[in-house]
Structure formats: C-alpha cells, structure tokens
Amino acid sequence: MVVPDDVVHIDAARAGELHIEHEQARHGSGHRIDHERAVADDDRLHAELVAQRSRHEGGDRIVVLGDHDDRRWSRALLHLILSVVSDLRFGLDFGTSNSAVAVADGPEVRLLPLDPMSGESMPSVLYVRRDGSVLVGHPAIDAFLADNRDRGPLRREVKLLGVRVASSVPGVAPVEAHILADPSSPGRFFQSLKTFLGDPLLTSTNVFGDARGLEDLIAMLLAEIFERVEALTGVRPTSATLGRPVEFVGGAAVEERARGRLEQAARLAGIREVRLVEEPVAAALAADVPAGLALVFDFGGGTLDLCVTRREDGEIRVLGTAGADVAGDRCTQLLIDQLVAPHLGAEMEWGPKRLRLPRFITSTIGDWRALSALNEKPILDALDDLVRAGWPKRELAALRSAIELQLGYEIFASVDATKCALSTEQLALFTFHRGAVDLDSMASRRAFELTIAPLLKRVDTAIDEVLARAEVDADQVIEIVCTGGSSAIPAARTLLQRRFPKARLRDAAAHTAVAAGLARA
User: Fold this and answer.
1) Could you list the pLDDT tens digit for every one of the 521 residues in the chain?
2) Beta strands in 395-493 (DSSP E)
3) Residue 352 CB: number of other CB atoms within 10 A?
4) Do 335 and 473 share a domain, yes or no?
C-alpha cells in the first residue's frame, strides 16, 4: 500500500502498548485496563475522532496501520491520534479559592464548564472518601456535608505519632507526640492547597493509610480537572500552561520550593510539558491591554497580583510585578465577624468575672471547616453546661446548632453573597435561618470598608512596590485592567482611582480572565 505524505501513520498494536503504558503510569502497574468499557464507548469515541479530524487545520488524513479492526484499542487510538493532530492549547488557573480551564483552538479561546453547579469557575477543593473515591468542586463540598451531617458528635481517639518532642515546660522530659484523630471519618476534605505550596514544614498527611504529600493531593485535584477537560474536548491534555502568583504565600524565600511542588503536581496529574506564567501577565494577554502602560489588578479570593505592562508594536512586555497574600476570602471572614459571630456568642461576657467563650471556639466561626471539626461530644456537652449555669441561651443554642448541623459552609456562602451585594448597594440585608441560627441584620458598606481598611493598606503598599519595580510613575499608566472577584469592591476601586487619576478602569472576566490568557500564552 502506498501512503501519501500528508497522512499521519499510526500502528494499532503500538497504540495499544502506549495505552497500557499511559494508564499504568497514571494508576500504578497493577491497574487493570477496562477493555469492555472502552468498547462500550466505541461509537462516541469514533464520533469524537471524526469531529476532531474534520476540525484539524490542513485536513491531514489519518491511516491506522495494522490490525485496527481490534475495537478494544479505540480509546488508545483516540488519545494517540488526537495528541498528534490537535492544535488545542490548555490554560489552567489553579487558584486558592477557585479554578478555571480555557482551551485555545487557533485564535478562538473558550472556557470549559468544569463544575456542574458554578460552571466555568470551580471551587478548588478536594474530598477523598474512605473507599478511595475522589470528588472536586461543588460535588466535593456537597458530599462532605452530606457524609458528616448525620454522624452526630465525633468521638476522637488519641493517636501516637511515634516521635518524642521536647516539652515546652522547663525541666519536663520529652513527651510522645500525638493527635486527636477521628477514626470513623467518612472522608478527608482539603481546601486552599495552593496556600501551602511554599510551606517548609509540610511533609505528608495520612489519608486512610496512604501517606500523601502536598504534591499528591494537588495532583489528585488536577487529575480530576483534566478528566473533565477530556470529557468536554475529547483530548486528554499532556501539555498545559498553569498560572502562578507573582509571589507565593511565604514570599521570595519559598519561591523555588513552591514552584517545584506545583510543577511536580502537574506532572503527577499527567502533564508532561508544564509551563508556568504569572497570573496577572495572563490576565493582560486576555484583556488585550492597549498601547502604552497598563496595570493589571488581579484581586481574587486568595491573593492579590499586580503587573505593569507596556504594549508596543502589538507586543506586550512586562515591566514589573508584585503581590500580597490578601484577598476576598479574608474580607468575607471579617464580615462574618461583624454579622454572625456576635450572635453565636463570640463577644459575649458573663458573670462578675466577665468570662468569655474560649478563643479556640470563637475563632472558628469564620472558618467553616474548623467549625465543623468542633462537633465533638465534650464540646457540645460543655455548651449545654454553660446554658444550665446561666449563660445566654439564645447565642449558645445558635452556636451549638451551627456546629451540630454543619452550617459553617452555608453561613460562609450567605455572608459572601452579602459582601458581593455591597459592591452595588450601600446596604444589604443578611438573613440566615437554619436550626437555632436565626439571623437578620443589615450590612453597611461603610462599616465593611472600615473593617477591611487594614487589608486595603496592604493593597496600597503592593501598588507602591509594582510601580517601583517597573520604574514608572502612576500618572503614566493609561489603563487599569481589573480581574478577580474582589476587584469589584468599591473601596478597592476608589483606591485605584486615587492612585491612578489619569487611568481608565476596565473590567475583565472576574473569575476566568487568567485562564483565558494562559491558553493564549
């Protein structure tokens, strides 16, 4: 048979070998290849192949050499052929709070609906059940809440860690290190994993008998994301551009460690070619900044990232970057301190000695995962004892209900929605009624702005830093591109207008601009 030069040559037997190598590299050498499932999916896979081939620029034809009638290798052939003919470029914005993926097909860039509830922006959370199943995004949150809502009070057990540590009390011999474990936990829930990339103390954690490092946990989350990408595009990415903050949490001292962990996690998730691009640089590409000087203001849920760019002759050059670990989730927690915590006993004083609830309890009200961890019989019994001793019943009943009914996430989400409403209104009604938690209060934009003033001061300092690094004056900046959900906070925009009086403010897609720019990078 004479094969024309414009044909892609693929050997079916070798495709099968590559498929086995690929699957066992992802799942371990003992992984069983499910040929029956591949055959069941055969029609859909062939349809995807035909559709992809028809889209391929240049119209290359595909010939499979060898025994390609063996339909069990359809999935392997699809992976291999699409990796050859596809020009798709993938950009992943793995954020502290949310993640997004964009795919570029030539000049066209589209965002992928990763999450069944929130669509293009998926919460960056991971839930690993005791049976080994993995969920991410809103399904992970829903599963965690459902698994724990009906468990009742937790009964923790002392677990020795096998090491002895020096006592903090002078003269006392070293003690056996231990933790209070939850042996019947239905799953482990992880969030804000990106925050810990530079942490020098973080080694591994036990996930139902398996030691998992931070890279492993992030890889599990990324692998689920790429599985979703494959389902939506027909292509399993093997190369991708990932966003990274200008400055990881921990500063310049942790740069090498944090960057290496992120790259390793991507490789463990199946990405052989990993590129890292600073997130505000990606936002600048997505926003198509104008000629001259521009500032990209990326104020998200976990970090603030700034970038000064100059566009000349159609090319965008980065002059300086800066960042800070200050962002929207912290603003929401501060608003919880205003609207919710006082009604759950956080500021309550009782008796002639003006006693207050322990800090380890009140500090969890703004952290929904920590609040759920208080669902232990000794703590709930102690709250009941305080009520019998005459402490304010209404507040303690609300606190007990928030703990026992696992209401922390719902409270956080409701307050976060109120925070967003304050971006367009001077006043916003916060209301929450579940169990004994019975709250109605009016949130004021002015009070909120006073609360977050220390955070905005850090934003102001970061602006000074980026201008100094770029060696430009604020008056030279002609446009500010705002992205990230927190960039809509009016006080933040007022700060920008004060610092850059000659610049025009322009909004890019709040939660997806970075991913779109990464796909273009």
Assistant:
1) 333 343 344 444 444 444 444 444 444 444 443 434 433 444 444 444 444 444 444 434 344 444 444 444 444 455 545 554 457 899 999 998 899 999 999 889 999 999 999 899 999 999 999 999 999 999 999 999 888 877 777 676 777 767 787 877 787 788 777 666 677 788 999 988 998 999 887 778 888 888 899 999 999 999 999 999 999 999 999 999 999 988 888 888 899 999 999 999 999 999 999 999 988 888 888 888 888 999 999 898 878 989 899 988 878 888 998 888 888 889 999 999 999 999 999 988 888 888 889 888 988 998 887 888 888 888 999 999 998 888 889 999 999 999 988 899 899 999 999 999 999 999 999 999 999 999 999 999 999 999 999 999 999 999 999 999 999 999 999 999 998 889 999 999 999 999 999 999 998 877 888 999 999 98
2) 427-434, 437-444, 479-483
3) 5
4) yes
| Two structure tokens written together for 171 | 């003269």
430 burial level (CB within 10 Å; 0-12, 13-18, 19+): buried
Q: Write the DSSP string, 35-91.
A: HHHHHHTHHHHHHHHHHHHHHSTT--EEEEES-TT-GGGHHHHHHHHHHHH---EEE
- Specify the DSSP element, H or E, that contains 160: strand 157-165
**Owning domain of residue 203:** 90-151+186-271
Q: Is 283 helix (H, G, I), strand (E, B) or coil?
A: helix
Q: How many domains does the chain have?
A: 3
Do the domain assignments include residue 235?
A: yes
Asked if residue 357 is part of any domain, the answer here is yes
Domain boundary among 29, 51, 86: 86
Backbone angles phi, psi at 415, to 5 degrees: -70, -40
Instruction: Measure CA of the first residue to CA of the last residue in the chain; give whole Å.
Output: 42
